[in-house]
Give the backbone structure.
Amino acid sequence: MRTLRINKQENEFVIEHVNSFGHGTKRFFITENGLKEGLDAYAPVIDEYELEVSEELWGFVLNYVGSSNFQQKASRVENNCGMKAQRLLYVERRLWIT
């Protein structure tokens, strides 16, 4: 399964995407809003990822991914693809504190 590792390094927020082969790429963000925009890119497929989140960002990420704003973005993309928008994301069950 693919993994998103979310943490903070040297005052920057980091989203590391690790594919099923163990290869990863990192994206860096200066602000919390930038991190939110980075997470928004994964909204339509967030349920395909395991999330590993640092302890200092756990609450922030959990609250944002569970927010109606994030859920609407995931649903909007599904509607454009002709899929049902009734899907509920239970991300908090698969959220690890690292």
User: Anything to note?
Assistant: The helical segments are 32-40, 55-65, 68-80. DSSP finds three helices and five strands in the chain.
